[in-house]
């Protein structure tokens, strides 16, 4: 209800893969590190905590390339041990990109993880998959993404969790919100997802949304669409630069996350 006071979170833990690690959103304060929507959400939540006379402690355990089962195996125990009052759990995209993935099995693992987090009193923010219908090559995963999203909504309803609804985020049909690899978000994409996440988290507990939080849906200024030849050249360049190395890693059993550890393993104030 709109008359209820806004919930102030004191400890937020983000778990997941490259989406939550923030790939392709360079952190200006730390060269070589990524910022991302979860860091940006933490800044909003910290402002709420400061207004209430406290501070937010924030940990980000996400690691690029991780599949959902790996996120559960490597990050869930740690997340529980940190005693968060908010956890974002966004995973499954790397599984869905692989042919033959059992979406129902993914949903079972996600359901169990959410149940465990809710059992320790944490609010949980899940995320649907993006609609890949407008993206070359990965558009063939659209049916699996849609099936997984139905599971996400069902799990959220069952456990009283929140859903960051990326499938319905029409602004993401604009290629300018995506990084050159067409898999990760550009900085503006991460910024808009953070605004939608803030609106989602704050909306659960009431309180009017600020104008800035509504900007996630605003269309970008018009720009001329590339012609057929330009699109074909861009698609060929993308296949050489990004698709071929991805396929090669799959064949060789390697991951972009090999040797990578969590960028923020401890819950600390944002300036800590």
From TrEMBL:
<dbReference type="InterPro" id="IPR013830">
    <property type="entry name" value="SGNH_hydro"/>
</dbReference>
<dbReference type="InterPro" id="IPR036514">
    <property type="entry name" value="SGNH_hydro_sf"/>
</dbReference>
<dbReference type="Pfam" id="PF13472">
    <property type="entry name" value="Lipase_GDSL_2"/>
</dbReference>
<dbReference type="InterPro" id="IPR053140">
    <property type="entry name" value="GDSL_Rv0518-like"/>
</dbReference>
<feature type="domain" description="SGNH hydrolase-type esterase">
    <location>
        <begin position="14"/>
        <end position="192"/>
    </location>
</feature>
<protein>
    <submittedName>
        <fullName>Lysophospholipase L1-like esterase</fullName>
    </submittedName>
</protein>
